[in-house]
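Dataset card, provenance and construction

Sequences and ligand SMILES were collected as paired inputs. For each pair, a complete structure of the chain with the small molecule in place was predicted and serialized as structure tokens. The example below shows a pair involving fe (ii) ion. Curators did not alter the output after generation; any descriptive sentences attached to a record were derived from the structure itself.
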Amino acid sequence: MTELTNPGPGFRSLGTEYDDYRPEVEGSIPGWLSGTLLRNGPGRFEAGDSRVNHWFDGLAMLRRYAFEGGEVRYSNRFLRTDAYADAAEGRLTGQFGTDTRGWRRLFDTVTSFGLPEPTDNANVHVARIDGEYVALTEAPRRIVFDPETLETHGEFTFGDDLTEHITAAHLVDDPHREEVVGFATQFGVPPQYHVYRVPDGSRRRERIASIEADGPAYIHDCSVTAQHVLLVESPLQLSVLRALNPFADGAIGMLNWDPDRRTRVLVVDRDSGDLLADPTLEAAFTFHHINAYVGDDREIVLDLVEFPNADIVGSLSMAELDGVGFPDVPDGRLMRYRIDTDANTVERSRRYDGGIELPRVVRSRVGRQHRYAYGQATDREGANGLVKVDCESGTAREWWERSVYVEEPIPVRRPGGDAEDDGVVVATALDIERERTALLFFDAATLDLEARAWLPHAEPFGFHGRYFRGV
Ligand SMILES: [Fe+2]
């Protein structure tokens, strides 16, 4: 554990939970916006006098922003998990960079050591599965919550027996197929990635494919086209042997970057489960896919945020983050991969010169041809801006303000709107000078700032969220 320091507001623990707080609004929120943005992320970083070692290990806190009639209401609530109860008693049981207990469960199956359960600190993302709202992380434990009150309703279990040792907090919610697609990693000989779908109204994962893993790699996200599921397997390997070292530093101690290996793009047929292609490129790492689709000439287009190596993972440790704003971490690059499955080749091109992370496309374009990607603009001094990239022309619009750190932007299309960018982009943003977070509303076409709703406190930097229409 690191010593307590004096962190900036983005990494400072919150003690207060609000319920239906009505923020002061500058400007006007579109009256048609009727739904709820649910976000997840760390909200507390200490237990007793210990502080977590990695941003990914803060205790899960849900944030709710409900829109109706041009108004917004705000709630925040910690998940009441075993990890939360442990922290209340002064014990930290985080697991990415902090504590090996959860991840050593991995070896339970291999060695039958009878090691403890993986963590239930589901602080990364949210999803709706079988009508339930579920908080997700990369350990295979999921927590159900009430989308109105944010109350914790216990553990979510799938109605199947898929084996998973590490899972993905990102599920692709495909509006065109009424299913979500995800994957999980199973250690063993050989290690495998299990790619699955969960049809709407079901909690049974149906196996699309099980692919022999090379590594296995730490994979954070995936994408779909109408006919494919795409995974990017980098040389950031999960080493079981390294983690058996009792001095290993949580899961991060399992990770090994091998620059001499190549990155492999796995192209899975979404219906047959066949591995259609697995072209390789020079070593590169990615957290987040942006979107994928089948383009002209049947080539597959995959846009993602790429890093030249995995230094980003270590740079998100708390020691690096204890500055005032968000630290100067390596910038992600918006890359377009064009995949020819017949030739088993992938060609790469950069679509935006700036740094970008936490990218999104509007939900209706998921798996279909998109033009616009929205993301954090990360290469500002003393700020994180917002960027809208035209992925066809390679041009971009940007918005930023000094001392304002924009988080993951969520594009929401206006009901009945035709254009892909007819709507708003909603993003939380921490103003480190005011020590307050605001919810920002931008015109999705122009990035003009339309409204700013001030929350009652500075929220610690979060990860991901989803907008649920009509909820
Ligand atoms: Fe993520």
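Derived descriptions for this record:
The longest strand covers residues 59-68.
The chain is about 5% helix and 45% strand.
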